[in-house]
Amino acid sequence: MNGAELLIRTARNEGVDVCFANPGTTELPLVAALEETPGMRSVLGLFEGVCTGAADGYARMTGKPALTLLHLGPGFANGVANLHNARRARTPLINLIGDHASWHRAADPPLNMDIESLAGTVSGWQRNVAGPNDAGRDMAEAVAAATAGQIATLIIPHDFQEQAADNPLAGKATFAYAPTDNAAVEAAAFFLRDAAGPVAVILGGRTLLAEGLCQAARIRAATGCDLLAETFAPRVDRAPDLPIAVRIPYFPEQAISLLQRYRAFVLIEAREPVGFFGYAGVPGRFLHDDQERRSVGGNGQDALAVITGLADALDAPTSPPPPERRSLPPVEDGPLTVQNMGHILARHQPDNAIIINEGVTSGRAYGELANHAAPHTMLTLNGGSIGWGIPQAVGAAVACPDRPVIALQADGSGLYTVQGLWTQAREQLNVTTLIAANRRYQILEAEMDRAGMPVDASGRGLTALDNPPVDWVSVAHGFGVPAARVETGQDLRHELLRSLAEPGPHLIEMTLSQP
Amino acid sequence: MNGAELLIRTARNEGVDVCFANPGTTELPLVAALEETPGMRSVLGLFEGVCTGAADGYARMTGKPALTLLHLGPGFANGVANLHNARRARTPLINLIGDHASWHRAADPPLNMDIESLAGTVSGWQRNVAGPNDAGRDMAEAVAAATAGQIATLIIPHDFQEQAADNPLAGKATFAYAPTDNAAVEAAAFFLRDAAGPVAVILGGRTLLAEGLCQAARIRAATGCDLLAETFAPRVDRAPDLPIAVRIPYFPEQAISLLQRYRAFVLIEAREPVGFFGYAGVPGRFLHDDQERRSVGGNGQDALAVITGLADALDAPTSPPPPERRSLPPVEDGPLTVQNMGHILARHQPDNAIIINEGVTSGRAYGELANHAAPHTMLTLNGGSIGWGIPQAVGAAVACPDRPVIALQADGSGLYTVQGLWTQAREQLNVTTLIAANRRYQILEAEMDRAGMPVDASGRGLTALDNPPVDWVSVAHGFGVPAARVETGQDLRHELLRSLAEPGPHLIEMTLSQP
User: Fold this and answer.
1) B471 touches chain A (CB under 8 A)
2) pTM of this prediction?
3) Which of B11, B46, B50, B124 is deepest in the core (most CB within 10 A)?
4) Chain B contact for A60 (CB, 8 A cutoff)
5) Which ipTM value was assigned to this complex?
């Protein structure tokens, strides 16, 4: 057994069974070990941002650490943007990087760079493996570190991968949540019971999984509070028996308008709402000083234990009545707009779908309607770094082969990591990608409009993507993904149902009419 | 005038006239300033790696600092791989990053990350602009820092871009090379004259420009030395009246076999040759201890002054006879191979072309023949971070609109930054991209073969790109670039000549037969 085999077998032993990989020469012993280790599956991405985004999606859906394999500093750098998103989502994720042979690094060969500093920008835990015999222990510790909800990065020089390792497999990693701060939970219960005036509970992190939302429903039944959700939650489960947590809006005026209705807040595993950007004359922190607040969860606690503890401390009923749901508006035919696109998707999404929403400007109408759609899981972009959706869909579909994945994707964002379509084709993943093709960076035009800046209408400016228009159908075909273009509601419905009925990936380019 | 305008006008005043940009909300005042500043052209990339690679190509061809505009930490991260290549090429390049408003950063909004540490992994100089009035001075100093042959990164918070700036434009940046170390040059001349046994001069950096090669020819005429070139040179000019500098091979056995012929070396602006990777049992440094060597240049000196000084110190003739050149081998028709592809390109490339060689395994046959082809400039991948060629072609074509650009591109590498084709279409750049489609990471398979590892022939392994095969013609069409697929020598010749005759970008997918 060599260092690479010790490392990969330890990972397998810890329950890691997929590696999202784009290796190079300094990772070849790891590649061999991946191929030789029973039960380990390697998924190739044509670009590292595809691997890291896919790992994020995989971990969000399985709840266990995902693994990537990246080539040296530049390969890691290509993965940083989606690692940033994963970090913000507190996704458990382990990066493996091969380094130059330990004796060769001082020669400063062309690909040499400061991997440690680079890894430090996104990693909560990182280590350089110091020898082949350390590979097992280091991997086990990486698994434990990642399980706590952070990025763990392990750098192993090429020679240590090749050299013989005498140590046996490391024992299982020991991970435990921090003890629940029961005093804080009791205090929050007291605060909720005693609050004068309207109160909102802001839910974040794992409290938005089905199990957490059941507890949130109990808390609401006991206190009459409103339930809000962080603007960008890693994962939200939705079903008729789960309460609707109202998403705090993206733009500050809308967020402040919602939040100012409340006299007090309890935040569970959630951060205080702040502006996505800072605008002159607009508060960056959305809560006023006179709005009281209590926070519970965080600091390594188990969010599900915290929210259950809070519901119990309130003596909340165990089975509160299910929420009322609106019926969805009728679907409109005719030219596709952001509105009827959202209606059609909400009405026709199959049971148990995983919805990946990187619609940016186009995904909002759908986002609200989705509360009333068939049961599904929604994944959103936590870190704001675009180019997340196509890779995320790869990982979610690998994690859940029996669930349909629908990726609502902005055209601008999709172009950052478009190579991910190829992995969808190679792995024959059940992903339907809906491209909302407005052929512009519309979020930027909206921001320019906010700032009173003129938007260049010539198609030559830095927000226009229509010269030439990207032909998504052709691009998708190039990567082996069947694709169609639609311009009307009836065509979208037809293509969507067809895509969902056929196995493997599909892409639908939706030409959107303004507005 | 606001901070953004002061900054951009200063850049324009310093001779910067193109910005390769992928901005976001925190860069909008800079976008407005770019659009309003006369003589400033913005070139949009759909991914930041396209912008940084294009800036590298632009600076290599113009010799002056190139400018990028990138969005916060994640946008910068997406550009790091090609910045690494630019750093290794000592390319003068300035990155502009907008940051969150200075007062908002403490709120840690979703896109917040440690930009300083990230920038530090590739930047030789970096600064956070501390207020709107500093923007001009900081930009002028960034220009000076970049001109010295390094990456300069300027981070300016959004509020300082928007706020009024009272300072006038900063004065012109003062940049001067370090004084030439004449004693070292004299010593190298003495060493060259006195060396017993065969001597080679290893040329690096700017000594491989036409002006430097003219001096190298003089040195050879005076001393009888051989001329070698660094394996990865930023830019090599080639013409019948310029000497041929033999490229040090990539694989260590071949490099060592070449280098062991010499008893002594003079390195001019060149680093000692080292292995691209460290292999067990193979030296990582290629020169033996008993091979004497002298280095001149570096440390901020003007490489062209150094090499001229050395030729003068040798009393070398001012006009040595031109080198003998081989006639190119006859072009072969029939199925395309790496060999006849190289022959066809070398024979048919037009005068004065810029050749971008990211052929990896497929570009080597061409690389040797190119010494005997029509006059051209060759750009190669210095830092080894693939996904460089398509963006590099963008920048070279923007820099030299009157020169045809031919990008010889590996299919694996090309897929990292394939979005660059769209910018070629948008700007109607005269780029012909030749995709050497072997549908595998062949360099990795070669490395596996070296290491005695079996290569998975199933098409499922981590080196196979044939399942599904990427249809480059379809992808190119999707991005608005006319494209064709060729399988024979005669078809390649036909399509190559047609592409070169028509304005705007073209792509030719070359299906390669084995071998």
Assistant:
1) yes
2) 0.97
3) B50
4) no
5) 0.96
